[in-house]
Structure formats: structure tokens, C-alpha cells
Amino acid sequence: MYEFVSGPLVWIAFIIFIGGSLYRIYYMLAGSKKEKVVFPHMSLEHSVASLVHWVIPFNNQSMRKRPIFTIISFAFHICLIFTPIFLLGHMILLDESLNISWWTLPEGVADWMAIIVIAGCIFFLYRRLTDPVVKNVTDASDYLLLAITALPFITGFIAYHQLFAYKTILIVHILAGELMLIAIPFTRLSHMLFFVFTRSYFGSEQGHVKHSKDW
Amino acid sequence: MKPTIAIREPVVDDALDQAEAKLTPEQIEKVINEVIDKETGGRLWTYVNTCIHCGLCSEACHWFLSNDRDVSFAPVTKIKDTLWVMLKNKGKVDAAFIKRCSQIAHTECNACRRCGMYCPFGIDIAYMILVVRRICAKLEMVPLYLQDTVHSHAATMNQMWVKPDEWIDTLQWQEEEAQGYVPSARLPLEKEGAEIMYSVIGPEPKFLAQLLGNITVIMKVAGCDWTMPATAGWDNSNMAMYSGDFEVMARVERLHHETAQRLKVKKIVMGECGHAFRGAEYDGPTWMGWMKPPIPIVHAIAFYYDLLVSGRIKIAKKVEGPVTSQYPCNVIRNAGLGSKLQYIMNEVCENFVDLIPNDRHAFCCNAGGGTINCGPPWKKIRVQSAKLQSENFKRTGAHTIVTPCHNCHSGVEDIVDKYKLGMHVKFFSELLIEAMEIPEDLQP
Ligand code: HEM
Ligand code: HEM
Ligand code: SF4
Ligand code: SF4
Fold first, then answer.
1. Ligand 3, residues B71, B109, B334, B385: which to mutate, most atoms within 8 A of Cβ?
2. Residues 6 or more apart in contact with residue B415 via CB below 8 angstroms
3. Domain range holding B186?
4. Could you identify which of A210, B63, B212, B236 might form a hypothetical disulfide with B276, taking C-beta atoms 3.0 to 4.6 angstroms apart as the criterion?
5. A2-209 sits in which CATH class?
6. Mutation test of the interface with chain B: which of A39, A73, A133, A189, choosing the one with the most B Cβ atoms within 10 A?
7. What ipTM was estimated for this complex?
8. Model pLDDT for residues A130-145, shown as the tens digit of each residue
């Protein structure tokens, strides 16, 4: 079981993640080509300007208006993306199977980063349950996305600390990680793929076409 | 997902009620799928598949903020209650639902694009609202008063049923009025090869003719080579753009641009109106696949700015006391003229008290996007939902609010009236006429 989950299934998950992502991006671009205005409106300069204002915290009005949310959102996303990529546990597996490796996070730091992601998910869950606007636009899929995001971190944390049933938890963890990878292209977690494009388009439309700004 | 609870006072709008009575589910399904499949593409698909349901856009919307943060007015809710349901049900919705869609899209959103600036993904809710309007318009679900203006556009090529002889009479009358200030002023009709074609919106000759007199004086003092068309094509307004009747929108814009081409002018200067600029500069050309207007369009704000900067008009006596200005969404947030507006305000007013928030972050007057054209049935909720902007005006302590846009002008007058602000509402040209120097050789 462990061999299968940590071997072929990892490959399958990555192939689906990468292939699915490419397909979804292709689908988006093809659909945008159909609309005669999208590509002619794009401008590299204004796309970059928009991204600079929206990937740097507090670099736009919207983020300045909600400082707590902004800090949590950035901490959450940074930890979410960097923890698995620079995790020692992951690197060992990678090194064993493919003989490649890179810099890793000190284990204590990685541990805290996992906690930040879990805390971030709890914060988002709390908003979903209490903020009237968010609650009104929430359905099962939103809870599912939060669960898919949190699960690899919760199980990874338990496995690392060997809190209980190490072998089983590790298998569950790997399955959860694979589920998340597969879910990214095919659910609204695809916001990870589309962020650059939606921002670039809006930035271009505001800047290039309308001579204004989008931050 | 549970339906949103939206509590509204009942409103009687005959056009919506009649459309509701006669629409069939088959028609509705066909039109929704036709519009979604044939007229939308990557943008709508990506927006719907990216929106993470975070609600951050709500903080941007004056409807939401003015109504005690009532969720049914939040931008994302407006999409949930319209497009999400249409997409999920693949167009299988009933007539009552389409009626509610029209209420949301035509009467409760100004397509002001402020929320797009607050969504972390830059999801353009206003664009999606226009898709909803498009579906409604194809189903003839458009508020009565708004539809009447569209009929007027279609029949007369102007918004206000102005007849050809009334148009010319009004221009001649205003030429005479202008000559009261500057005897040599002329309002040249049909001058082929002039540098500028000046165009206005339908309500100017109908209700606000003195603005035509004002521009005649300004053009003379500035020494501009200009003309106005004597034929249809003089009206640059476009309510069909806002109802969702893009076929009529395109006819209007095409005629406006073709008239300028017929007169062989170098540019079109337009009066103080925001939506007209949007239609002529952006929505019209993109729908027709032109990308750019064939002849450059200059909004009054940019035009006055050029005249002041180049010294072609000089200010003799600045307007006294605190004056503030509305920032019309379609020429500020959506055309970047904010700093030019600030410049001309400072040039012409002794004490320009700016709004907070200002420039592209300023709030809509809540009349824009065609909502004011939905007429008296929808006025109460519209003015009630401008509460936030009324407070922003009040804080300035100004005696006059300048509105370089016709929609803003009427909307701000409603605000001043309802919230008892006791402020004057003026177009920029009215201040300019008071403040501008009339050279001696031009004086009577
Ligand atoms: C795809 C296959 C994956 C495999 C084979 C895998 C494997 C592992 C292994 C072996 C550990 C170490 C457990 C220990 O120290 O005993 C671990 C820990 C962890 N993994 Fe994964 N993982 C995968 C995917 C993911 C994904 C997608 C994420 C998150 C996005 C993730 C997040 C974590 C975290 C947060 C920890 C624990 C960190 C800590 O608390 O120190 N893993 N994983
Ligand atoms: C570079 C990639 C990514 C970008 C730019 C990005 C951007 C965003 C943005 C702008 C939001 C909206 C709310 C906020 O600002 O927090 C958001 C929310 C969220 N993102 Fe991401 N994201 C990325 C990757 C991911 C990934 C890989 C996941 C998980 C697999 C993820 C999970 C979430 C979750 C769970 C939320 C909160 C949803 C809620 O409110 O319930 N994101 N993201
Ligand atoms: S476009 Fe303007 S009025 Fe419409 S939802 Fe967005 S902020 Fe509100
Ligand atoms: S801010 Fe953007 S992503 Fe969030 S709910 Fe509004 S439209 Fe959707």
C-alpha cells in the first residue's frame, strides 16, 4: 500500500496536476481568443504593473482597507506554497527516488509554517460561517476546498510528530497531498493558475485601454 | 447554495410585469444559452471559475455600504443571484427569475467597475452585470423608462425624441444667447474640415440648452475651429449600451462616428457626460470590433484642461468659497482623467475641497450605468443607496458640487435634494463662464 501510494500514485498525481493545469490554461486562452477584444487589450507593461501592486502586501487600497485579512492571507499562501516545496521529509523521498534535492527548511520552521496554514484555514472557515456576505455565497464546494487544502497539512503535521498510527497517517497524508494536487486544476483552487491571467487582463484593460489604474 | 434573502419594497414597472407574464421557459433557456455560448468566452468562464467566494468586493460597493451592509447588494451576491443560477441550471429558469435579474442588473448596479478594483483577482463584476443585462434585453425584460430611451435612440437616433427641426432651432437660439456675451460668437453647423466636431447628449437640447450657449462662448474665446452636425448623429449618448440592446447601441455609435467622418474633422470633443464617452470610446467600438474609435474622442474635462494649460482660456476671477467635485466613474476610474479634473478645479476655484475617497476610488453618484434612466419607479431605492456619497459631500462643506457628467448632475441633484445638503450642482462649463476672462476685443 505505502509503496503504491508513495510511488506510482505520486507520478499519476503530478501528471494529472500538470497536464490538467496546462489543459485548463489552454481552454481559457482558446475561449479568450474567441472574444475578439481580449488579446488586443493586453499589454505587458500594464500586466506587470498590476501584478506588482497585487502580489506585494498593502500595495493597493483593497489590502490597506483590511490589514488583518491581508496579513493572514499572505502568511497562509506563502506557507502553503513554500512548505511542501522545501520540506526535508519531501526532499528525502525525492532524493531517494530521483536523486535530486535542493535547500530545505529547518524542521522547526516548517512545522510552524504548517501550523500557519492550518490556522489560516480555520480563519477562512470562521469567516465563511460568520461574515454575512461570505456566508451567503458559500456552498458545500467551499467547505470542500478548505478541507482539501487543510488536510495535507493536518496529516503531515501528525505524521511528522508521530502522534499516532504513523504508518496509516503517513499514507493518509500522501493521499491527501495527491488529492490536493489533482484538485487544483479542476476546482476553484485553479485560482492559483488563473490569478496571473485575470490580474493581467484587468490591469491591461484599466491601464492600457482605459488609461487608469487597478489598485 | 441557498437563495439570497432580498427584502425590497414592491415596485410597479409595467414593462417588467408584462414581460414576466408573456415569457416562456423555452424562450428563456434559448436566449440564455445563446448569449453565453455565442457572445461570451474566456472572460466569463475564467471569472466564474476563479471567484473564490471571498466577498472582498463587497467593501467597494456603495449599494452595499449605503444599505447597512445588506448582503443582497454585495457585488458577488449580484452575480450569485443571476449568472451562477443561469449557468448551473443551463438556462432553465423562470420568468420571475429573469425579472429579478433585471431588477438587480438594471436598477441595483451602476456598472461603475469599482468592485473590480477591490477584488484580489480583478474579476470584473460590472462586465458580468452587462452580460446579465444583455440576456434581459434579448428577453425584453428592461425597465419601462430605460426601454423608452432605447426606442427613442432606435427611432430618432437621439435619446429624447428630439426632432430634426427642434435641434437646429435650439442651436440657433443658443447661438444668439452666446452672442449676448460675445457678439462675434458663432455656432457653426456642418462646417466640413473643421478641426473639432462637438457632440452632446440628447437631454442638452431638450432641458439644458444653455450648455450649448456656454460652449459657443468658450469655443470663441479659445479660438477653436469647430462645428456641430445639423443631421442625426449629433447625439453621443447611448442608453441601449446600458439596457443590453447592443444592436441599437452599435447603430448609435456608428452614426456618431460616421457623422464625424463625413464632416472630416480631426477629433470629436464631447460635452460633460461620462456614459457617452464610455460608449463612444470603448463599448461601441469594441462591440463593432474596431478596438479604437476611428476619430479620437476628447472628453470635456481633457478639452478644458488643454485650453487652460495652453493658455487659450484664462481665468479672470476664481470662483469663491469651498467647491467640490463628483468624479464621474466613466471618465475617471474608467478613463484616467482624475488628475486633469483636479487641475481644472484648482485653476478655476479658489478653494477646491476634494472628496474622500477621491479620483478613481471615488464613489459613484448612483445615477450612472443607466439606473437613473430606469425612471421614477426605481428612484427611491436609488437615492437611498447614495447615502454614503451624500455623507462624503456633506463632509466637504462645499457650497457647490461640480459634476462634469450629465448622469452625475441629475444623480447629485437628487442626493442634494433628499439629504438636504443645500448645495448647488453645476457643470464645469457653468463655472468656467463665470470665471473666464473675455478678451476686450470680444466683449460687447
Ligand atoms: C504528493 C505526495 C506527497 C508525499 C509522498 C508526501 C510525503 C511526506 C512525508 C514523507 C512527510 C514527512 C513525515 C515525517 O516527517 O515523518 C511529509 C510531511 C509533510 N507534508 Fe507531505 N507529501 C506529499 C504531498 C504534500 C502536499 C501536497 C503538501 C501540502 C501542500 C504536503 C505537506 C506536508 C506537511 C505540511 C508536512 C509536515 C510538516 C511538518 O509539520 O513538519 N505534503 N510529507
Ligand atoms: C500563487 C498561487 C495563488 C494565489 C495568487 C492565490 C490567491 C488567492 C487569493 C487572492 C485569494 C482570495 C482571498 C485572499 O486574498 O486570501 C485566495 C484564497 C484562497 N486560496 Fe489561494 N492562491 C494561490 C494558491 C493557492 C493554492 C495552491 C491553494 C490550495 C491548494 C489555495 C487555497 C486558497 C484558499 C483555501 C483560499 C481561501 C478561500 C476562502 O475564503 O475560503 N490558494 N487565494
Ligand atoms: S459595478 Fe459598482 S454598483 Fe455594480 S456591484 Fe460593482 S461597485 Fe457595486
Ligand atoms: S472579491 Fe473577487 S473573488 Fe472575492 S467574491 Fe468578489 S469577485 Fe469573487
1. B109
2. B365, B366, B383, B386, B389, B390, B393, B421
3. 155-305
4. B236
5. mainly alpha
6. A133
7. 0.96
8. 999 999 999 999 999 9
